[in-house]
Write a structure and sequence with these properties.
Elements lengths: L2 E6 L5 E6 L19 E14 L2 E14 L11 E14 L3 E12 L8 E12 L13 E15 L13 E10 L7 E9 L8 E14 L4 E13 L2 E2 L15 E2 L2 E17 L3 E18 L25 E4 L4 H9 L15 E3 L25 E11 L2 E11 L2 E3 L17 H5 L21 H4 L7 E3 L2 E12 L3 H5 L4 E15 L21 E9 L1
Antiparallel strand pairs: 1-2, 3-4, 4-5, 5-6, 6-7, 7-8, 8-11, 9-10, 11-12, 12-15, 13-14, 15-16, 16-19, 17-18, 19-20, 20-23, 21-22, 23-24, 24-25
Amino acid sequence: MAVYTPVLHDDGSIGYRKSGSDSQLSYSRNSNGEGKSRDWYMEADLNYSRKFGDHNVTGLVLYNQSKRYYPGGTYDDITSAYVGFVGRATYDYKTRYMAEFNVGYNGSENFAPGKRYGLFPAGSIVWIFSEESFFKPLKKVINYFKVRASVGMVGNDNNGNNRFLYLPDAYILNDDGYFFGTNAGNKKPGAYEASKSNADVTWEKSVKQNYGIDISILNEKLNISLDYFKENRRDILSSPDYMPGILGMVLPIMNVGKTENKGYEFQLKWNDKIGDDFRYWANFNLSFARNKIVYKNEIEKNEDWLYETGRTIGSRLIYKFWGYYDETAEARYQEEFGRPIADHGLSLQPGDAVFADLNSDGVIDGDDASRDLGYVDTPEYTAGLNLGFSWKGWDFTAQFTGAWNVDRMLSEFRQPLGDTQNKGLLLYQYENTWRSSADTYTAKFPRISKLAQANNYRASDLYLCDASYLRLKSVELGYNFNMPFMKKIKMNQCRLYVSAYNLFTLTDFMWGDPESRQSDRPNYPLTRVINLGLKVGF
């Protein structure tokens, strides 16, 4: 748009100075849908509930339908739609025996007719032992005892922003174009095949199981819960990656792959008081979960340790660090393995990293990288502790969290001067780098070398760091005033408190927050916050 600025000429007349140019107004919007939203949802249900003496029965039938007009992604202008039926029936007898059955029948736009709908049943049962007549002699010690079990199936139709997985192959226009012939200026627009379609693709399914007990003892002062869970996923929506890049295409989304996740959860709650004024409590929870890939459609590999099948989801393909090269390395390696140090692709110098030749072929290459080293980014164990007390006007609470059996792989931080070789040398790298034979058994990092970086800084368990931690998440101490003048002015609350967050973290991980999964370029560390406040109510 042109702008005209008034200008006074020498003769006293007024002119206009033009800047810019006149053009037709244009319109644009964000292709990802930010800034606009329109959702539509409809639901209709029929409920039933009746009591027959000691028997209680309920039922539910529900229909739902939804539309999202700006779903984002490649097909942002095409409405995303879902439809489903839900049924539920429950039964209990004297709140002693309870059962529930659910079923869902859902349809998705992502699958072809005949593959569009999926049936997903679920059921659960509960038996309260402590309500049985034979349990009465134990009630003085065990006040409450419940056994429960549940099994159910759920479905998934999402694979990133991929939609309409059954439609004919999609093509992407390359506006930049391609060169044809030998003339560099002969650049013509073209298109390439984005991915193949799959008319047989359907719902990804997951069968979830949970078995648990709930116990209360010591006049309900101590409550214990124990759960065992297991999840089996099958028909996982994924695109196999075993096609060679020279074909210039991507395989379609398929129902291929199986995974398993299982573990347990334990919770302990104590709530008691001393005298009439002092009440205290503590809640402790512990969980363990371990998963593995049961089946993945992989190309044939040279070594067993290269496969993802049978290993934890997210397992790293890394080399096994043996030690640092020095004048004694050859003899030590020969004594341990019965063969000389393998060819590392360079002439090893004192202070260079030496890696184990897992397949004993005399060469360190991709076949010597293993998925059996260390833990993944997701901790196997997590724990939490909440405790507190109240005494007269005082109250105190604290929360601890922790995790272990978890590792982080250093990325940029394992390489002196950074990934671009022109950044600062960090102090810990300087202090812990191999400098002489005296550091062979104590150095945490190989010698600083730009020429040997491809060998020394390759992904290996040398740079796999334990990210276990124990953190005081929050703590608060407060006092509630109760003074005569408060009633006169109709003040019902006056509380003075001090609270703090992230006071300390015990961990050996020094490259950022151990709770964060970023070790490449971590976010800012957690901020320690201390608040002093006064809360008044009328």
